[in-house]
C-alpha cells in the first residue's frame, strides 16, 4: 500500500443526540392527544341535517323525552286523588311547559341543544304535599287533587325565585368558576350513573318487552349498520325509532292476544299498551292555560321543601349542559352562560307554577345521550322537536297514543343513553393529569360519595316519600332529603370542596391552564360562536344580566 504526500483530514461524523426514551408502554401502541371536540360528530351545534332528517330526528327527541313525563304523572296523579282524565291533562301541561322551556333555553339561555324535561327532583317535596292532604276530608277525590295541585303551584312560584336569584345575580357563575376538569368528571358521570334506577330496574318490570328492546337497539344501531353499509346512516340515526316501533307492536300483539289477562296489577301497568287509559280519557283538543286548577295556595312549610328541589335542578342542569356541550361540538359553557341559563330556568319554573305543572323542569339527560347515539348535535333539531311537544300537548288524543308506550321500553332506551352521558364525563379527564395521586383521590372520593350518599337517602325513603332525615320541622326534612338524594348535587359539593382545599396550588395538574379561558366571556374566540344570542339581542339586554 503506497502512501501519498497528501494529508487527508477526515472529519469525524456528527454525533446525533439520542432520542428521548419513550414513556413506559408507549412503544406498544399509539398515544392519543387530548381533543377538545369529538371528531366523529356528523353535525355539530350550528350545522343542520337536511330538513326531512331534521324532522325525523326531532320526533325521535320527542319520543325519548316522553317517558319521564308519563312516569312522573303516572306516579303522582293517582296519589293526589286524580283520575285518568286528570292524568292526561297533567301530561299535556308538562309537555306544553317542556316545549316552552326548551325554546327559551335554546334561544336565550344556554344555547345548547338540550331538551328541558320534567325533573324527578321534585318528587319528594310533592310527595310531602300529597301526604299533608291525605288525612283531610274533601267532598270528592277530585277536589283533593285540585287542592294538591294548587298547593304545588304556589310552591313552584315561590321557589322559582331561588333559581332566578342565583342565576341573574351571578352567584352561580362565581361558584362554577371554582370548577376544574377534576370536578366536572364526577359531576357529569353521576348525572348519568345516578339515574340507574330508571334503567334496568324499571326494565325488569316487563322483561319480555324491555330486554328485547335493549338487545335490538344495540345490535341494529351498532352491529347491523356495519354489516349493511348502505343502511349505515339510517340505522345510526333512526334505529331507536325503528326498534321502538317493532317492540311496541309486539307489546300490542301480546296485549290483544290476552297474554296479560291473568297477571298481577304491576305487570299489567308495565306491559299492557291499553292499561294507561290515556287514549279514552284524553280530550281531543285542550290548550293548557294559567291557573287551570284554581288560585295557587302558598304554605311556607311546602315552599321550603320545593326550594331544595330548585337547588337540585341547578346542579343537575349544570352537569347535563357540560355533557351537551361535549356531544354537540361546542366548548365548555362559560360561567356567565351557566348562570344566565339557571336564571332562565327559574323563569321557566315560575311559568310552570302559573300554568299548573306538577313538577319543575331540568335539562333532559336522556336527550343529551341521544346526541351521542345519533352523532348529531344540531341545535335546530332540538328546537324543531318543540313543535311535536306543542302539537301533542294540545291535541290530546294523538299525544295519548304515543304516551301509551310501555315504560320498560323507555327504560331499555335509558340504559344506553344514560351510559353515554356517564362516559362523556370521563373524557374530561384528558385535560388534567390523570397520573396524579391527588387527582385520583379527589376524583374517586367524589364519584363514590356522589353515588353512595344519594343511594342511602333513596333506599331509606318510604313509599309515601318520607326520607331518613326526620325532625320536628317537616320543611327542613324535605329540604335536606331532597338535596342529598341528588347525585349531581352531592358530587358538586364534595368535588368543589376537595379540589379547592386539597393542594389546590397544583393548577397544572388540575387542568386549570386549559379550563380557565373557557370560563371567561372573551377567553376563547369560539365562545362567541357557540353561545352568542340570536339577532343581536345581546345589545338590548343590560350587561348585569349577561
| Percent helix | 55-70%
Strand order of the largest sheet: 1-2
Task: Provide the β-strand percentage band.
Answer: under 5%
* Integer average pLDDT: 90
Silhouette: globular
Order of helices and strands: HHEHHHHHHHHHHHEHHHHHHHHHH
Question: What are the segments in which pLDDT stays under 50 over at least 5 consecutive residues?
Answer: 1-8
User: Number of DSSP helices?
Assistant: 23
Kindly name the structural category: mainly alpha
Biggest pleated-sheet summary: 2 strands, antiparallel
Secondary structure tally: strands: 2
As a whole number of angstroms, the C-alpha radius of gyration is: 26 Å
* Terminal residue distance: 90 Å
Question: Care to give the gist of this entry?
Answer:
The chain is an all-alpha fold. Helices cover 63% and strands 1% of the residues. The chain has a two-stranded antiparallel sheet with strand order 1-2.
Key terms:
single chain; 546 residues; mainly alpha; two-stranded antiparallel ribbon; 23 helices; globular; disordered N terminus
Describe the structure.
The protein is mostly helical. The protein contains 23 helices and 2 strands. The chain has a two-stranded antiparallel ribbon.
